[in-house]
Design a protein that fits this description.
The chain is mainly α. Among the domains are: about 80 residues, Winged helix-like DNA-binding domain superfamily/Winged helix DNA-binding domain (Arc Repressor Mutant, subunit A), CATH 1.10.10.10; about 40 residues, no CATH class. Helices cover about 50% and strands about 10% of the residues. It contains eight helices and four strands. The longest helix is centred in the middle third of the chain and has 21 residues.
Length: about 220
C-alpha cells in the first residue's frame, strides 16, 4: 500500500497547487469563522443582517463574537457603501436598527450565486454520483486525521528532513537562514551551508549580466 498512499499524497499536492482551487477552498472554509478585516468581516455582517432583519450593533457583536469597535466600524463602512440603512427604534429612539438596502440585498444574492457557480465549476469534471462518493471518502479521511494519530509520524519525518536543510533563526534584524550542521556532520561534517559550485548570485539572486548594468562573466 506504500506506493498507493504516496501517489495519493502527490495527487493531493497537485490539487492544492491549483491556485483557483486552493483559494476557493480556503475562502469557503474561513469566510464564516473569522472576524477579519474588510471585505471578509463586512460580508459576515451583511450575511447576518440578511438572515435577521432590524439588528442592533449589540446583536451583531453577540452573534459574531467580535469587538464592539469592530462592529461599529464595519457597520459604518457598509452604510457608507449604501448596503445597509439604520433607523431609530420605535421603542427606544437611542437604539439604531440595521437593515439591508435594496443594493445590499442584490449584493448578497450575487455573492451567493457567484459562490455556487464557483463550486460547480471546480467540480464540473465529476458526475453527481462521483461528487457524492468523493464527499464520503474525504469525510472519512478527515475524520481519521482529526484523531491526531498520525501527528507523531509527521513530526518525526519533517524533523529528520530539517536536519539537512536551512533552518530559520530569529535574529536582531528578523529571520535569517543558516545551514544546520546537526546530525549531518556524520555525512561530511558541514558546519555551514556547503558550496555546490555553479554561478555566483547577482542582483535578485540572478546571474551577473542578467540585470541592466551588469557585465557578463568572462
Amino acid at each position: 500500500m506504500t506506493q498507493d498512499t504516496q501517489q495519493l499524497l502527490r495527487l493531493f499536492g497537485r490539487l492544492f497547487t491549483q491556485r483557483g482551487f486552493a483559494q476557493s477552498a480556503m475562502w469557503t472554509l474561513h469566510s464564516d469563522h473569522r472576524e477579519g478585516d474588510a471585505p471578509r468581516g463586512q460580508l459576515r455582517v451583511l450575511r447576518l443582517i440578511a438572515q435577521h432583519d432590524h439588528l442592533t450593533n449589540a446583536d451583531i457583536v453577540e452573534a459574531l463574537d467580535i469587538r464592539p469597535s469592530s462592529a461599529s466600524a464595519m457597520v459604518a463602512k457598509l452604510e457608507d457603501a449604501g448596503l445597509i440603512t439604520r433607523i431609530p427604534s420605535e421603542a427606544d429612539g437611542r437604539v439604531q436598527l440595521i437593515s439591508l438596502t435594496d443594493d445590499g440585498k442584490q449584493f448578497i444574492e450575487s455573492v451567493r450565486n457567484d459562490k455556487d457557480q464557483l463550486a460547480d465549476k471546480m467540480f464540473a469534471g465529476l458526475t453527481a454520483d462521483e461528487q457524492a462518493q468523493l464527499t464520503g471518502l474525504i469525510l472519512k479521511l478527515v475524520g481519521s486525521l482529526e484523531t491526531g494519530d498520525q501527528d507523531q509520524a509527521v513530526d518525526a519525518y519533517f524533523e529528520k528532513l530539517g536536519q539537512f536543510g536551512p533552518r530559520r533563526h530569529h535574529g536582531h534584524h528578523g529571520y535569517r537562514q543558516e545551514w544546520d550542521g546537526g546530525p549531518s556532520r556524520g555525512f561530511g561534517g558541514y558546519g555551514e551551508r556547503p558550496d555546490f559550485g555553479g554561478r555566483p548570485h547577482g542582483p535578485r539572486g540572478g546571474r551577473p549580466g542578467s540585470h541592466p548594468g551588469d557585465k557578463a562573466a568572462d
